[in-house]
Write a structure and sequence with these properties.
It contains 23 helices and 23 strands. By secondary structure, it is an alpha+beta fold.
Length: 597
């Protein structure tokens, strides 16, 4: 019996062994074959070169400087390899004396890890001219790897800074699952560089190669070229950008030049800052200085500056009044210089009053009292609803990140935000673009285009995305009645810049016939007890009103919008009129405008 048990166990053991041999030799062949393939096929990803950004005349405004990154072999910080590490760093500094030996050593030791088996980057960029004389000698050293590394450069420095944005080091969150960002370590920050980052950075290429056990290349199995050099052409004219900055002198503020279909020729937010300081990393001291600058150079005031619109909103309100059925387009209000409501006195800017005033005169001479009285007839809900339809209080859709919305107040808005009831006095404040009303300069440019053409464009900076033109169609948003009454508003806007009593007439001397609207937006309220107001130039700088002037031209055939905001500039016509004149003359002299009227 025992013998049978022993024989049975012996047979079972051999059967198990035979089955295992069969499994390993036959059944698992596919698995181990695939494993062997993975061990002998190496995948290399090819870093794409970032596309350049050009202005409308094909002038490069964001380019790539050619250079190299330097990597060291891993595990050289181990005790047994330390002499090799010291030797390699000494040789590197000997060939490239601009490098810091102590910093290189410290950076390498921080990045070296027993778990890492790939070369470690210790220098992210060495310019081509500096590397060229020593490239062949460094490239022969087995512990050093040199790789092409283009570096972003902005030839115009701070010009168009807020439009372009910049390329800088990516953080872990930026990298996410994006292979290209992980490979380059860079990402577009702010502006066009951020908005079109995925397009500009391209797509990584790929090589699959068969290698020996000694990591020697045997054959190339696959080669997919990187999708790169995706250039982006903008609608801006970089020379106009430069000219406008010069025209502003020491003033801060915003200037936007846009065609009536939405293509932006120039958009300047002052002050600006040099984009190149961010490419390699800005020092903490310099960052703090810029961040604490009271004039806010980092703020893109074009899309995120929030300002009371003041009287520039009167053109839209005039159209709302004229089509409300409650205020006659030809009717008049008697302006005596002030209007009492309850215990408060709402003053017109002209203390002596404008006397008998119709819509055209009210816009031409910016009569506050006309708009006070009209608002009481029309009501805040109709005013608010239509101003938002005209493009205020919502994003314009411009192709820049972080656009602000602004505020067009209403009863519903106040209830939701403050849980308070609306007061009639707030309607009067809204009728002259004050109170809680806030807009961005790009909204005012879009709003002015609507007054000029009857259509609401989508502002845009990109003109050609590679071979594809980008030109969104303006929206036809006005009713038949609004289109019928719009010529009255246009006539008034022309008289603002040309007729006797026009608030900008004395300050505009352009070669081109233009129409527009001035605005003086208060930044501090004036107490009721003050009977005689100080003049703007008598106020402390930061208590002075912001100066608006938004225009279109030529008057009879609108082609361009020029919207200006001079921060704490006081009167809109006086502060911005000469700048507008220079811009229109530049457009005419450079053949953008071919007819003066």
């Amino acid at each position: 019996m025992r013998a049978k048990i022993v024989v049975t166990i012996f047979i079972l053991v051999w059967v198990s062994l035979i089955f295992r041999v069969y499994y390993l030799a036959i059944q698992s062949n596919t698995y181990y074959d695939e494993l062997a393939t993975r061990n002998t096929v190496k995948t290399e990803y090819i870093v794409p070169i970032r596309g350049e950004i050009l202005d409308r005349n094909k002038k490069p405004i964001a380019i790539n400087n050619l250079g190299f990154r330097i990597k060291f072999a891993p595990h050289l910080s181990k005790k047994k390899n330390r002499k090799t590490l010291d030797l390699e760093i000494s040789k590197l500094v000997e060939y490239l004396p601009s490098l810091d030996k102590e910093k290189l050593l410290k950076d390498y030791i921080q990045k070296d890890s027993p778990y890492n088996h790939t070369f470690i980057e210790i220098v992210d960029f060495v310019p081509y001219k500096e590397m060229f004389p020593v490239y062949s000698r460094l490239n022969l050293r087995e512990n050093i790897k040199l790789e092409p590394a283009p570096k972003r450069h902005y030839p115009y420095g701070e010009i168009a800074a807020h439009l372009l944005g910049y390329v800088s080091k990516a953080n872990r969150k930026d990298m996410g699952t994006d292979r290209v960002i992980k490979m380059t370590g860079n990402i577009g920050k702010n502006g066009i560089e951020s908005q079109y980052n995925n397009y500009l950075q391209g797509e990584a290429g790929l090589r699959e190669i068969k290698v020996s056990a000694y990591n020697e290349e045997i054959a190339e199995l696959k080669n997919i070229q990187a999708v790169e050099n995706r250039n982006l052409t903008l609608s801006i004219d970089i020379e106009l950008q430069k000219y406008i900055k010069e025209a502003f002198g020491k003033e801060t503020g915003v200037a936007i030049v846009m065609d009536t279909k939405g293509a932006v020729l120039a958009a300047v937010s002052l002050p600006e800052y040099d984009l190149n300081i961010f490419v390699s990393g800005i020092s903490k001291d310099r960052w703090t200085a810029l961040e604490n600058d009271i004039k806010a150079p980092f703020s893109n005031k074009i899309i995120s500056g929030l300002y009371p619109p003041g009287s520039v909103v009167k053109t839209g309100l005039g159209l709302i009044y004229a089509t409300s059925g409650k205020v006659s387009p030809w009717g008049s209000f008697n302006c005596t210089g002030s209007m009492e409501l309850g215990k408060r006195n709402f003053r017109c800017w002209r203390s002596s009053g404008h006397k008998d005033t119709n819509l055209v005169k009210a816009i031409r001479e910016s009569c506050d009292d006309y708009f006070y009285k009209g608002s009481l007839k029309v009501g805040i809900e109709k005013m608010s609803e239509n101003l938002m339809r005209y493009g205020l209080g919502k994003k314009t859709g411009i192709d820049l990140p972080h656009e602000f919305i602004g505020t067009i107040p209403s009863k519903e808005w106040k209830k939701k935000k403050y849980n308070r009831s609306w007061f009639i006095g707030e309607t009067l404040n809204s009728s002259i673009g004050q109170g809680d009303m806030l807009v961005t300069p790009i909204q005012i440019a879009q709003f002015t285009a609507l007054m000029a053409t009857g259509k609401l464009p989508t502002p845009h900076i990109a003109m050609d995305i590679g071979p594809t033109a980008y030109s969104p169609e303006p929206l036809d948003i006005l009713s038949k009645e609004e289109k019928r009454r719009l010529p009255i508003v246009r006539k008034a806007m022309r008289e603002v810049c040309s007729a006797e009593g026009g608030t900008a007439t004395a300050f505009i001397d352009s070669k081109v016939k233009i129409a527009g609207k001035t605005g003086t937006a208060q930044v501090v309220s004036i107490p009721q007890k003050i009977k005689k107001r100080l003049k703007e130039h008598e106020l402390a700088y930061f208590k002075r009103s912001h100066a608006w002037l938004t225009t279109y031209g030529p008057y009879s055939r609108p082609k361009y919008i020029v919207s200006l905001l001079v921060e704490h500039g006081g009167h809109g016509g006086k502060a911005a009129g000469p700048i507008a004149t220079k811009i229109y003359d530049w457009l005419y002299d450079h053949k953008y405008i071919k007819r003066k009227y």
